[in-house]
Write a structure and sequence with these properties.
Crp/Fnr family transcriptional regulator, single chain, globular, 6 strands, Jelly Rolls, 189 residues, alpha+beta, 50% helix, 24% strand
Length: 189
C-alpha cells in the first residue's frame, strides 16, 4: 500500500489517518498472465491501478478483429470506463499480458472518497483529466499521422513497452499490419 500512498501524494498530500481510511477502499489482486480482469458482457465492478505487470484494454469488432485501446503499466489506471461509470455491462476486455498486481477500487468507493475528501476529489479529477488528454492525443495522432510517425512516437514515449509487448499487439495498437510494423522496426534500427 506504500505505492498507493506515493501515487496519490504525487498530486496531493495525505495525513496518516487519511491514508489509513483511503486504503481501506482498495483491494489488492494478484493477476496471472492471460487472465482477464474485465470480460465483454460482464458487470464492470472496478477501476484498476496497476502496481505490477502489463495489461491491454481492447474490444472486438463485429468481425472478431481485436482493437487495442490502451496498454497499462505501473501507476496507470485502467478499466472499461463506459461500463464502470455508466454501470453498464462491459464492451471491452482488460487482459493481463505480464503477470502482476493491481489495486481494485469500486465506483461506490471512488465516489465516497471523492465526496469525503477534497484531496481525493482533486486527485481523481487530475487523473481523469490526464487520461482524457492522453486519449484525445492518441485519437488525433491516429487520425492525422503516418504509420512511421505513429511507430516513432510510440517508441519514443514507451521504449520499455516496445521491448515487453509482443509485436502483434504493438501493431494492433498502432493500427498497422504486423508486416508493416516489421518494416518500420527494420527501418529504425
Amino acid at each position: 500500500m506504500d505505492r498507493l500512498r506515493q501515487h496519490i501524494e504525487e498530486i496531493t498530500p495525505l495525513s496518516n489517518e487519511e491514508f489509513d481510511y483511503i486504503k481501506s477502499f482498495f483491494i489488492l489482486k494478484k493477476v496471472r498472465k492471460n487472465q482477464f480482469l474485465v470480460h465483454e458482457g460482464d458487470e464492470v465492478k472496478f477501476e484498476f491501478l496497476v502496481l505490477e505487470g502489463i495489461y491491454k484494454v481492447f474490444y472486438l469488432d463485429a468481425s472478431g478483429k481485436e482493437h487495442i485501446v490502451q496498454f497499462a503499466k505501473k501507476d496507470w489506471w485502467m478499466t472499461d470506463y463506459i461500463g464502470f461509470f455508466k454501470q453498464k455491462n462491459a464492451t471491452m476486455f482488460v487482459e493481463c499480458l505480464q503477470e502482476g498486481e493491481v489495486l481494485c477500487l469500486s465506483l461506490e468507493g471512488r465516489e465516497k472518497l471523492a465526496s469525503e475528501f477534497h484531496t481525493m476529489e482533486h486527485f481523481f479529477r487530475v487523473k481523469l483529466t490526464n487520461g482524457f488528454i492522453a486519449l484525445q492525443q492518441r485519437i488525433t495522432f491516429l487520425l492525422s499521422s503516418t504509420p512511421q510517425e505513429r511507430y516513432e512516437e510510440f517508441s519514443k514515449l514507451y521504449p520499455d513497452l516496445m521491448l515487453q509487448i509482443p509485436k502483434k499487439y504493438v501493431a494492433e495498437y498502432l493500427g498497422v499490419s504486423r508486416e508493416t510494423l516489421s518494416r518500420l522496426y527494420s527501418n529504425n534500427k
